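FAQ: What does the model actually see?

It sees only this:
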Amino acid sequence: MTDNTALAYPSSTSDNLTDDDFTKVDVYEGCICDIDVETGCNYVTLSWDDTGADTYVIFRSVEGLNAGYEDIGRTDVNSKKMGSYVMGTTT
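And it is asked to produce this:
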């Protein structure tokens, strides 16, 4: 990958940054693409299409996208009512 440093920041006198990196990405069939959310007083109910999984694990991050996820609930059906996990708001 090469960025556009030299053109974007000409006064920096830096060349374009270049780097190579490789990883393995596992893509699983049957992932959940659509999640419905019903809100209530101090709870949310999450529901989704049944993919046939034995267990669904629910993760939450308070750090932002793609960071800090923690396992906050598990269920063997395709919905989960969660009250004690709803703390604070995000704007």
